[in-house]
Write a structure and sequence with these properties.
binds 1,4-dihydronicotinamide adenine dinucleotide; 7 helices; single chain; 7-stranded mixed sheet; Rossmann fold; Arc Repressor Mutant, subunit A; two-stranded antiparallel sheet; alpha/beta
Length: about 210
């Protein structure tokens, strides 16, 4: 199910609520107030209530939220209640670090395939994930993999994305620092440490 008219900012905050809730679950906590949840995420408590209001009735006024049920509901909204398989393309420095990172599992992600163009990397394994020839991207269609992580050089990004779209990929997390075009049905989220870093000095007070 996709909810209508939910602001992107709300969707952006949901994984942060989830991260806080998962931590509390690990600590054996049972309930939480919207103020506590707000403090965990760094927003105001009214914002927490407003964010959840888009999805129906969560929690009990004056009491708060049951952590387990709220976790379940947020996972369901984000479609993380089922294992989400992802493929990585570009197993270089960044791609290999992504493959080696175990923190995606908590959210139900399984990086189930990796691809590269370099014959020296093809056939090797990182974190037990085999690096396959990028010419085999079309096999994703039959492997129930809907998501891709793009970590190829910028000049290879568009052609790789075109191949991913042909292979039925519906969502792309893009590290390659360039603009790409995709059909409307495909969602692209870009991560760019460099441009985030480039706006940081602006906020720094100078003497
Ligand atoms: P890298 O050169 O170590 O890795 C790139 C990998 O892509 C190599 O293994 C190469 O063989 C492979 N490759 C090249 N063409 C390909 C193709 N057509 N199909 C499949 N694989 C292909 O580079 P690094 O440092 O890992 O960076 C990867 C990308 O991520 C670059 O575009 C870089 O600019 C970007 N980057 C973005 C960051 C961010 O914050 N957004 C941070 C660091 C890197």
């Amino acid at each position: 199910m996709r909810y209508r008219k939910v602001p992107d900012e709300t969707v952006r905050r949901l994984p942060f609520y989830l991260r806080g809730l998962l931590l509390l679950l690990q600590q054996g906590r049972v309930g939480i107030s919207s103020q506590e949840l707000a403090d965990l995420v760094g927003v105001r408590s009214w914002q927490v209530r407003k964010d959840f209001s888009y999805f129906g009735e969560f929690g009990t006024p004056g009491v708060g939220y049951g952590i387990e049920s709220l976790t379940r509901q947020i996972k369901k909204i984000l479609k993380l209640d089922v294992i989400q398989k992802a493929a990585l393309v570009g197993a270089g420095n960044l791609g290999s670090a992504v493959l080696a990172y175990t923190g995606f599992k908590v959210y139900g992600f399984d990086i189930a395939a990796a691809f590269d163009i370099d014959p020296r990397k093809i056939g090797r394994k990182v974190n037990n994930i085999l690096i396959e020839d990028v010419s085999k991207l079309n096999t994703l269609k039959h492997r129930k993999i809907n998501l891709a992580i793009l970590a190829v050089p910028a000049d290879a990004a568009q052609q790789t994305v075109d191949a991913l779209v042909r292979a039925g990929i519906k969502g792309i997390l893009k590290f390659s620092p360039c603009y790409i075009t995709v059909p409307r049905k495909v969602k692209v989220i870009s991560i760019d440490i460099a441009t985030d870093l480039a706006r940081l000095p602006y906020y720094i007070r100078t003497r």
